[in-house]
Amino acid sequence: MDWGLDRDAIPVTAAEGRYSALRLQVRGHAIEVLDLDVHFGDGSRHDVAVRSIFRPGTSSRVIDLPGGRRVIRRVVFVYRKVGPRPGPAVVELWGRH
Fold first, then answer.
1. What angle do CA 34, 40, 41 make, to 5 degrees?
2. What structural domains and CATH numbers belong to the chain?
């Protein structure tokens, strides 16, 4: 079963520091992550084509960010649920300082 596309944002504050890389971890329900849009503190953005299916308990590759360690304001991701099992997916965003 293929569910419709959805878009969510994970806010990050400057108080949390500067990051050089990101990783997504998924719990609860399988999803297909199509795209990440990283919004930096200086107003610039970095688009990452992910296009991968994540089963519960799996994580993405380490996504290196351009420009060294930078403040992130938010990460917007486009995804859809996959599979017949109902229920929410929980996406955790991990960052490397």
1. 155
2. 6-96 (2.60.120.1380)
Taking all residues of the chain, what is their mean pLDDT, rounded to a whole number?
A: 91
CB 58 within 8 A of CB 88: no
Please state whether the predicted TM-score (pTM) of the whole model is above 0.70: yes
Q: In sequence order, which residues have a C-beta less than 8 Å from that of residue 81 and are 6 or more positions away?
A: 3, 6, 29, 30, 31, 89
Phi, psi values for residue 29, rounded to 5°: -145, 145
Place of tokens 């959805």: 6
Name residue, tokens 């290196």. Answer: 64
